[in-house]
From TrEMBL:
<dbReference type="InterPro" id="IPR001347">
    <property type="entry name" value="SIS_dom"/>
</dbReference>
<keyword id="KW-0032">Aminotransferase</keyword>
<comment type="subunit">
    <text>Homodimer.</text>
</comment>
<dbReference type="GO" id="GO:0097367">
    <property type="term" value="F:carbohydrate derivative binding"/>
</dbReference>
<dbReference type="GO" id="GO:0006487">
    <property type="term" value="P:protein N-linked glycosylation"/>
</dbReference>
<feature type="domain" description="Glutamine amidotransferase type-2">
    <location>
        <begin position="2"/>
        <end position="219"/>
    </location>
</feature>
<dbReference type="Pfam" id="PF13522">
    <property type="entry name" value="GATase_6"/>
</dbReference>
<dbReference type="InterPro" id="IPR047084">
    <property type="entry name" value="GFAT_N"/>
</dbReference>
<dbReference type="InterPro" id="IPR035466">
    <property type="entry name" value="GlmS/AgaS_SIS"/>
</dbReference>
<dbReference type="GO" id="GO:0005975">
    <property type="term" value="P:carbohydrate metabolic process"/>
</dbReference>
<dbReference type="InterPro" id="IPR029055">
    <property type="entry name" value="Ntn_hydrolases_N"/>
</dbReference>
<dbReference type="GO" id="GO:0006002">
    <property type="term" value="P:fructose 6-phosphate metabolic process"/>
</dbReference>
<keyword id="KW-0963">Cytoplasm</keyword>
<dbReference type="InterPro" id="IPR035490">
    <property type="entry name" value="GlmS/FrlB_SIS"/>
</dbReference>
<protein>
    <recommendedName>
        <fullName>Glutamine--fructose-6-phosphate aminotransferase [isomerizing]</fullName>
        <ecNumber>2.6.1.16</ecNumber>
    </recommendedName>
</protein>
<dbReference type="GO" id="GO:0046349">
    <property type="term" value="P:amino sugar biosynthetic process"/>
</dbReference>
<feature type="domain" description="SIS">
    <location>
        <begin position="288"/>
        <end position="429"/>
    </location>
</feature>
Length: 612
């Protein structure tokens, strides 16, 4: 994932920008670059393929002078990771641009600019932005106005930072679909795609809104225009998250903290990957679009919680994209004579990207030579799985410390929904169903935040499980894998034996176990299977089982003797698996706390299983 840092400071900016890039390294990237304007208004840049350390070595050899500059880490989408494709991109040696995101209409724009005499020196979509702004600047003589004019012509998602030799020490930033923050210093001003990049110089930030364009000038002056071009004031907020991932902050356990981060990290996983009414296929890699057109089948392979994400994705991929999908645990996949239909994409899902079984399955699949290609959906940039797969999409859950996976799972689901929507679009173009889902996805972080407010209710519920030996989880359709995940969470951290069944299977065996000592948890969003699920629940009730039903506010399931109903916010049926995971995570967490187990490091389990 790309990163942006910019600075207009009272001191030389090379060190500030370099430190900013290092702080963004966790997001994953394959090249890096920096440009500065020196005191004589000369524009210069350095770029390097690979780690920020390679850029640092280049800068040690040939330092950049100047108190105004922009820098970037690039994750290749248009064109390979080469020095020529690395940012900043220049236009006519006088304008520099760094860009996060994807410009979908770059091809016609490139043709137009070439006809106008612009020569391209990279394969990127970004260079189009550089030349467009350069041309507009020549007409208007004002960089702020030129950027505003140009962004109106860009389709897709972006955050950009721009400097021009003839505009003195000035940086223009703009965002749509990708984050950008202004860091406010003392007589100094900064810009970055993530506040983390700037914590070494300030803790005061202005979070730019969607469509905002900002002009930063020497002395810390700034001006912001909203999406309609009107000047606006945006609040300066003090950053209070402390040093993030490594500390538990106000939480008692990492797992609890990670459960509560889900609204934020789902928003991060969506950032820069959604256009107004569709998901951006390019987010999966430079060759994704071309490959997606040929997919006729999908095999998903993963372990543990990641495997459950794959099970949900099967419903989505078949329903939304009409692609036959198989899901298998990695340790089984390798030892089976798998039949690979023509044009099958091999997908791995993993938080760590280092799970031995998943990695071995990928190598096995690649060794066969008959898959169309491979895609890794993973939370760790630069992990083996990402490096060895043809395509990849990073979930931006941030480091997950608790052994029991939580935020990695819901961000995997978010990424898999983007995959299903991208593949649907390849097959049938834009349509209202997809547009509705995109809208619902945008609202998802808010629904997640509302759902987390159930924490106290669920904590009270936990006492009903504290003394039990067993629990049963039921779901139907996409909620069956969520029931599996709920049962897995409970057994991992509270050591209560828990099993999950598709609700329709209850009568074929597990019903024999149901009595007053067996709590039964059902996940029942208001989808087409609800009526059927209601009768399954009756089967439990008549055997004296204690029922705990997580249901949509509008489901019509009522509380009664032995039936506790926990109402969840209304959510699009297809996104319900993401939302319904949360109360089950909270339930497992509170039961484990009640039982006094080691929540973050449960016995016998490891976070990353790198042995077979
Ligand atoms: C271990 C962890 C699980 C995780 C599984 C797969 O068993 O304890 O929480 O789901 O590995 O890990 P991965 O990193 O590949 O998602």
């Amino acid at each position: 994932m790309c990163g942006i840092v910019g600075a207009i400071a009272c001191r030389q900016v090379q060190g500030i920008l370099l430190e900013g890039l290092k702080r963004l390294e966790y997001r994953g990237y394959d090249s890096a670059g920096m440009a500065t304007l020196d005191d004589q208004s000369a524009l210069a840049r350095r770029r390097a393929v690979g780690k920020v350390a390679a850029l640092e070595a280049e800068l040690a050899r040939a330092p950049l002078s100047g108190r105004c500059g922009i820098a970037h880490t690039r994750w290749a989408t248009h064109g390979r990771p080469t020095v020529e494709n690395a940012h900043p991109h220049f236009s006519n040696g006088r304008l520099a641009v760094v860009h996060n995101g994807i410009i979908e209409n770059f091809e016609p724009l490139r043709v137009e600019l070439e006809a106008d005499g612009y020569r391209f020196s990279s394969e990127t979509d970004t260079e189009v932005i550089a030349h467009l702004i350069d041309r507009e600047f020549s007409r208007l003589g004002d960089l702020f106005a030129a950027v505003e004019r140009v962004i109106a012509r860009l389709d897709g998602a972006y955050a950009i930072a721009v400097m021009h030799r003839d505009q003195g020490e000035r940086i223009i930033g703009a965002r749509k679909g990708s984050p950008l923050v202004v860091g406010v210093g003392i007589d100094e001003i900064f810009l970055a795609s993530d506040p983390l990049a700037l914590l070494q110089v300030t803790d005061r930030f202005i979070y730019l809104h969607e469509g905002d364009v900002v002009q930063l000038c020497r002395g810390g002056a700034l001006e912001i225009h909203d999406r309609t071009g009107q000047p606006v004031e945006r609040a300066v907020v003090t950053y209070e998250h402390g040093d993030g991932a490594a500390s538990k902050g106000r939480f008692r356990h990492f797992m609890q903290k990670e459960i509560f981060e889900q609204s934020e990290v789902i928003a991060a996983t969506l950032e820069g990957r959604l256009a107004s009414d569709h998901a951006l296929s390019r987010a999966f890699g430079a060759t994704a679009e071309e490959l997606f057109e040929r997919i006729e089948a999908i095999h998903i392979v993963a372990c543990g919680t990641s495997y459950h994400a794959g099970m949900v994705a099967r419903y989505w991929l078949e329903k939304l994209a009409g692609i036959p999908t198989q899901v298998e645990v990695a340790s089984e996949y390798r030892y089976r004579e798998v039949v690979v239909p023509r044009n099958t994409l091999f997908v791995t899902l993993s938080q760590s990207g280092e799970t031995a079984d998943t990695l071995a399955a990928l190598r096995h699949a690649q060794g066969r030579g008959d898959y169309l290609g491979s895609l890794a959906i993973c939370n760790v940039a630069g992990s083996s799985l990402v490096r060895e797969s043809q395509l990849s999409l990073l979930t931006l859950a941030g480091p997950e410390i608790g052994v029991a996976s939580t935020k990695a799972f819901t961000t995997q689901l978010t990424a898999l929904m983007l995959l299903a929507l991208s593949l649907r679009r390849v097959r049938q173009g834009d349509d209202p169903v997809a547009a509705g889902l995109i809208e619902a996805l945008r609202g998802l972080p808010r629904v997640i935040a509302r759902t987390l407010k159930l924490d106290a209710t669920i904590e009270r519920l936990a006492s009903a499980f504290g003394e039990k030996q067993h629990a049963l989880f039921l779901g139907r359709g996409t909620q069956f894998p969520i029931a599996l995940e709920g049962a897995l969470k409970l057994k991992e951290i509270s050591y209560i034996h828990a099993e999950a069944y598709p609700a329709g299977e209850l009568k074929h065996g597990p019903l024999a176990l149901v009595d007053g000592d067996m709590p039964v948890v059902a996940v029942a969003p208001n989808d087409e299977l609800l009526e059927k699920l209601k009768s399954n629940l009756q089967e439990v009730r008549t055997r004296g089982g204690q029922l705990f039903v997580f249901a949509d506010e509008a489901s019509g399931i009522r509380e009664s003797e032995g039936v506790t109903v926990i109402a969840l916010p209304a959510v699009d049926e297809l996104l319900a698996p993401i939302v319904y995971t949360l109360p089950l995570q909270l339930l497992a967490y509170h039961v484990a706390v009640l039982r006094g187990t080691d929540v973050d490091q449960p016995r016998n389990l490891a976070k990353s299983v790198t042995v077979e």
